[in-house]
Amino acid sequence: MRHGDLAGERVGVFQGGGLSSLALGVWLREQGADAHHYVADLGQSRPEEIEDLAGSLRASGLPVTVVDLRPRTAEIGLELLRHQARHDGGYWNTTGASRLVLVEQLSRVLRADGRTVLAHGCVGGGNDQRRFATYAREFAPDLAVYAPWTDPAALARFPGRAAMVSAVKDTGLLLDRGSDADRSTDATLAGASHESTALEDLATPVDDRSLAPRWSAWPGEAPAAARTVTVGFEAGRVVDVDGSGADPVAVLETARDLGAGHGIWLRDVVERRIIGTRCRGVYEAPGLEVLDVAWQRALEVCLDPRARELYGTLAPLLGAAVYEARYTTPAAVAARAAVEELVRPVTAVVRLTLHRGFARVAGITAPGVGADQQTRFGSGGNRWR
């Protein structure tokens, strides 16, 4: 779809405050398109930052609706944990999962508002353009999709990020604090990805000169005193993190703040991309990193060996499915259902000690723990029990 095809259409813009999506808003206004911006609150920023973004759009004459997608984002984020849906280097697929959430949830809002076109600002030919196209075919086959950076006219107007920054600033739009001409942060409640000119160079170390974390402290800046916290699981679900209660948003927010505050967050990887290339990225998911330490110990205690074996076979399949936008295909749905059944016995309370970049298991209580546990030294040291 090209800009000339937008005449007479009602465009719904997926807006998160990143540079390319804001530049899309500028471009559509210059074309005289009937465009409405849907600011998705995925938990990527503080509530006041979301409102400031929406306010800057309104002040610039761009219609806005803020949509709270934190509950669905948290739900999917905790599915990534249960399903161990990781990609290269073990990082959590929070960006791929957010594309599903955005299209699944916002397409309903666009349709209810009478919008006829879904527009997003993802880079032409990249992973996310493919993800949006794939999920749009499933969740919004009635909506046309406009991807501006495949439109030659839009590319001529914005040949690079520097031109985008200039236009966004001239329009008075509020740019996300993790995005500028040389870097980009894609964040949700569950985690954030960091890319930049510096980080594309594999010789660049990840430190405070090359990266500004979204939420997290560097391990050396974390408190000197360790902290012990508890994570509760019931029938394979996280039901509490140090007093959070079972609400998924509260669970992930509490886990995120704990991990971030104690410097537990960093994954520095070179990933294989959908489009066949490799690219270096840095990933920040403090909540999932903390929860995973507890989850792994609970699996060890609560699952039998054959269940663990099958679980370990299905997890990589689901990791690839999230990354490649195949999470709703029949194969992935079947694998997800199997994982949910396998983890049903996981009921436990795990104690963790958090300290300067590490989460360590401090203990676990669970029904049946010890029933088949061998001990020797507790029996005098010369025989097994």
Automatic annotation (TrEMBL):
E.C. code: 6.3.4.5
Chain ranges of the Arginosuccinate synthase C-terminal domain: 184-364
EC category: ligase
Pfam families per the UniProt record, alphabetical: Arginosuc_syn_C, Arginosuc_synth
Coiled coil, from the record: none
Recorded metabolic or biological pathway in which this protein acts: Amino-acid biosynthesis; L-arginine biosynthesis; L-arginine from L-ornithine and carbamoyl phosphate: step 2/3
Protein name stated in the entry: argininosuccinate synthase
Protein keywords: Amino-acid biosynthesis, Arginine biosynthesis, ATP-binding, Ligase, Nucleotide-binding
Span of domain Arginosuccinate synthase-like N-terminal: 16-152
Originating organism: Actinoplanes hulinensis
